[in-house]
């Protein structure tokens, strides 16, 4: 019966994750589809580059809330493992939403929201470190990749949450790395686009990179 419960939590969280904040904000308020511009990605980073920081931040908060809700409800229903299952469901739904032909975001904001529930203090430290790295390098993708990779490393070294959390952390990192595979190639080639404050002053929609 517990496994059925985990399955129901995953399905419910997946459907929640399928609500694409960037897509619906663009459609409702701007009558446009963010996936037609930039990286073609329905995530907060592309939303910021295409439509500006206000819409980008709103999408970021909304995407993070999906992870928060999924992790909280899952934990409330079936304990820590239920929280991990809920978080995974929300991230998968955000990245590969069935209602949008499986073309969603990269899951970083949703992962951050879930991890703030599941490991709040360590995650705040990781976020602070990544913000500093972002301002130093200008690479959103690099900060996202290193942040995702740092979670299973932390779990393995500290023993936080035991084996279930380590497995969860590895899966989250694997999804983040997979979603950023093109960014990784561009970083290696030195072709990745940097984040600049100047770029937020205009709609950066025409470039097919992000």
Automatic annotation (TrEMBL):
Catalyses which reaction(s): an acyl phosphate + sn-glycerol 3-phosphate = a 1-acyl-sn-glycero-3-phosphate + phosphate
Enzyme Commission code(s) on record: 2.3.1.275
Topological relation to the membrane, as annotated: Multi-pass membrane protein
Keyword Signal recorded: no
UniProt superkingdom: Bacteria
Keyword Cell membrane applies: yes
Gene Ontology molecular function: acyl-phosphate glycerol-3-phosphate acyltransferase activity
Chain segments annotated as transmembrane: 6-30, 50-78, 114-141, 153-178
GO cellular component: plasma membrane
Pathway(s): Lipid metabolism; phospholipid metabolism
Subcellular location: Cell membrane
GO biological process, one term: phospholipid biosynthetic process
Known role: Catalyzes the transfer of an acyl group from acyl-phosphate (acyl-PO(4)) to glycerol-3-phosphate (G3P) to form lysophosphatidic acid (LPA). This enzyme utilizes acyl-phosphate as fatty acyl donor, but not acyl-CoA or acyl-ACP.
NCBIfam families in alphabetical order: glycerol-3-phosphate 1-O-acyltransferase PlsY
Subunit: Probably interacts with PlsX.
HAMAP family: PlsY
Annotated family: Belongs to the PlsY family.
Annotated protein name in UniProt: Glycerol-3-phosphate acyltransferase
Organism: Gehongia tenuis
Encoding gene (name): plsY
